[in-house]
Design goal:
The complex is a heterodimer of chains A (about 280) and B (about 325). Chain A is an all-alpha fold and about 280 residues long. Helix content of chain A is about 80%, strand content about 0%. The longest helix of chain A has 29 residues. In chain B, helix 3 packs parallel to helix 5. Classes of the chains: A mainly alpha (about 280), B alpha/beta (about 325).
Chain lengths: ~280, ~325
């Protein structure tokens, strides 16, 4: 099974690199995300624009810093947002990982794979691994850009690995679910509607952009069912030292979600792969 | 256990989609090294039958042994000994032809140099050497079909399934593929072919099963089947419907089997040569616009057995159609 999975991952990556247009657009996307999103939400200039002026600009700065500290736990909103973006970007990559399954089914190349004696699970895992590799690549780009734009980071290998593992688990969970959806759905438009139905709401119902504390109670309740919430918490804790929940709680929940999502996604995908 | 000469043994194979019985308890055996055709119109159940034999779909009922392995219980073993050329184009058009064939070799368990040697062998067999390193999106329709076959035979399968292998191809490409299929037979490969072209079935097959509405209505060598429609048919077209009716009346006096079909008067005779003088005499007072003699062929057999023709409305998937057109252009 391992060798077949390897062969199939190689195929996915070959296609990814071969599509030069998409490859470069995907490179630009993280830049746009961080630069536009991160830098347009510049709270210091927002306060001054709102007319909070004083004879002493230092007082204004102190006031702004205090507010930011109270809201986000840090005065550096860009770093706060960047950690959220690392998670959200990986999440988006995984959700879209299922889209090409719909196309491969319709165009016949999925059928071609089904004709071979390769284990059905290798088809499932190859998609997952290829998406993880792509995500890892883009995450690295994202990190470099974030640092260039002023992301302040205490570099520590262990924290880095921990944050990376959390993002990988979240990605695996969503790739599995969206592979299952990709296999179940026969039409790419249905697939896109499902993707759009979940991606933005899940991003906003999480602490990726704003802290949970600032949300209305009902949104906070929803966010507690959102895997992104726990992943962001782990990543932010490891890279910035900020967190809302207990780390043990975060990890237990994230691991639980991963086990459930991956098994469910795999179960559905393999069933359909055997007989569609 | 199957006897050593039987390559495929189909037993009560059935596929039901909701209330539709796509394949209804069919039985047939295919000998090793035989070219066996399933002939029938679109929607007859040919593709569903092949899909079940190729383990792409699970039978609702019944079973089939492919080289002794059950398509229900030993699916992976079946997949190792078969090659499938489906109706759709399944090559990945973002990759080169070589990459596609190589991928198949590797997924069949070959690695490194051996995989590459096999891939080149299949590519040479299909005469695609010059295009091997080009991306598939730049292939012509005939080349794509040949690539599909190359991908399906790279692992030296014992059985090859070809589902409508020449749909949408020009005469030259069609003949080319026919030659390659005969070549496979020479190498001892069992070939199962579906087609709705009766020339194709007649030209290639050792035996033909005529399939309609999920049933096998007749089976035998093309000669056996043609013997089922004894004699020739003469098709006569007249200027008006009124004349047609009158002509049927007049001809029925001297000929036993005179029918009206799709606006034609159809006369079944033992020998058209013997019948012609009398026919011309009887028709001398009519305004004949067309007269055609049809010798027995599989299309006639099909018509005789099912009461309808082989070519019927095809189901239409715009997405696939566009891809097919893109492939066939150039």
């Amino acid at each position: 099974m391992i060798s077949e999975t390897g062969v199939l991952v190689e195929r996915e990556l070959k296609k990814w690199v071969g599509r030069r247009g998409t490859f470069f657009i995907s490179l630009i996307t993280p830049v746009a995300w961080l630069a536009l999103f991160g830098k347009s939400l510049n709270f210091v200039s927002m306060f001054s624009a709102a007319g909070v002026q004083a004879a002493n600009p230092i007082i204004v700065k102190q006031y702004v810093d205090q507010t930011l500290l109270k809201l986000f736990g840090t005065t550096d909103y860009f770093s706060y947002l960047a950690t959220g973006m690392f998670v959200v970007f990986a999440f988006f990559q995984s959700v879209f990982g299922g889209v090409n399954i719909v196309f491969e089914k319709r165009l016949g190349s999925m059928n071609r794979l089904r004709m071979t004696p390769a284990p059905r699970s290798s088809i499932f895992f190859a998609k997952m691994i290829a998406t993880l590799i792509r995500s890892f690549f883009y995450e690295t780009v994202l990190l470099v850009i974030a640092i260039a734009l002023g992301f302040s980071l205490d570099f520590n290998v262990l924290n880095f690995v921990e944050a990376g593992v959390a993002i990988a688990l979240l990605s695996m969970s969503f790739i599995s679910v969206f592979e299952a959806i990709g296999f179940s759905v026969d039409n790419q438009e249905v697939m896109f509607s499902i993707v759009n139905l979940v991606n933005l709401p899940l991003m906003f119902a999480s602490p990726a952009l704003f802290p949970l504390r600032q949300m209305p109670w009902w949104l906070q309740d929803i966010a507690r069912f959102n895997p992104i919430t726990y992943t962001v918490d782990i990543v932010r804790y490891n890279l910035l030292g900020l967190h809302s929940f207990n780390m043990v709680e975060d990890w237990v929940i994230l691991l639980g979600i991963t086990v459930v999502f991956v098994s469910a996604g795999m179960f559905v995908s393999l069933r359909i792969l055997e007989n569609y | 256990m199957p006897t050593p000469d039987i390559s495929i043994d189909v037993r009560n194979l059935t596929k039901r989609y909701g209330s539709l019985l796509a394949v209804d308890h069919i039985n047939f055996k295919v000998m090793r090294g035989e070219i066996y055709s399933l002939l029938g119109p679109n929607g007859a159940g040919k593709t569903t039958t092949i899909s079940m034999l190729a383990t792409l779909r699970m039978p609702t009922e019944g079973d089939a042994l492919v080289e002794g392995y059950s398509v229900v219980r030993e699916r992976t073993k079946v997949r190792k000994v078969i090659g499938v050329v489906p109706q759709d184009l399944t090559a990945d058009d973002e990759l080169t032809g070589l990459d596609n064939v190589l991928l198949m070799a590797r997924l069949h368990g070959y690695s490194g140099k051996e995989a590459e040697e096999r891939a080149w062998e299949a590519i040479k067999f299909m005469e695609l050497e010059d295009a091997a390193k080009r991306r598939v999106m730049y292939y012509s329709g005939g080349m794509r079909r040949r690539l599909e076959i190359a991908m399906s035979i790279v692992h030296n399968p014992k059985v090859v399934f070809l589902d409508e292998p020449t749909v949408g191809l020009d005469v030259q490409s069609r003949r080319h593929i026919w030659d390659l299929v005969r070549e496979l037979k020479k190498e001892g490969v069992t070939v199962i072919l579906t087609t709705h072209y009766m020339e194709e079935a007649e030209e290639l097959s050792d035996r033909v099963a005529i399939i309609d509405h999920g049933h096998i209505v007749a089976e035998g060598t093309p000669e056996d089947l043609k013997a089922k429609v004894k004699g020739d048919r003469i098709y006569v077209k007249l200027k008006s419907d009124a004349e047609t009716t009158k002509a049927i009346e007049a001809l029925s006096k001297d000929f036993n089997d005179v029918k009206e079909m799709n606006g034609y008067v159809v006369i079944k005779v033992e020998s058209s040569a013997d019948a012609m003088p009398q026919l011309i005499k009887l028709l001398s007072n009519f305004d004949v616009t067309e007269l055609r003699v049809v010798r027995p062929n599989l299309e006639e057999v099909f018509l005789e057995l099912t009461g309808h023709g082989l070519r019927e409305e095809e189901s239409f998937d715009a997405f696939k159609f566009r891809r097919l057109m893109r492939a066939v252009r150039s």
